[in-house]
Amino acid sequence: MKLVVGLGNPGKQYEATKHNVGFMVIDEIASTLSHTPWREEKKADVCTSTVAREKVLLVKPQTFMNNSGEAVGPLMRYYKIDPADVYCIYDDMDLPVGKLRIRPNGSAGGHNGIKSLILHLGTEEFPRFRVGIGRPLPKWTVVDHVLSPFTEEQEQIITEGVTNMAKAVLGTIEVGIDKGMNLYNPKKGKRHT
Fold it and tell me: Is 14 part of any known ligand binding site?
């Protein structure tokens, strides 16, 4: 079984913000699969589906970003899921808007949602699916940046990025993390401007 979690903040006012890219990807994945009705469980909205004959739990923590682990840790333990099968989707300021990066593990890199997951899962060994949101504008704080919506110019780019990441997550469930990184990570030599 896989636990596929998208990080974000609950509530209408946060729906379209950069910090909610994880939720956007989960919604996109759910829209392409037949799944059980969404339900509340362990401080998260969850539904269940099947991908490549494997059961998949789609998860949107309702704890607010900085406490995401309070939902994911209990779900992982309740369903007896290995951390290597917890696929975490979230926003990354170090990547250009809409760019994707998959890694098998790593540090929090300053991301409070990931810090919370590491704390509550008790390990850094869980796969990361990062979607670029770009850097803050001059004189903007990180908080201003992540809690602001995408600009009109960025809308199409991020929509494509979310669609591509949904495909990458589903593809990686089928082929495994190593092949998934190979298939979906940007190829070396291609310069990102």
Answer: yes
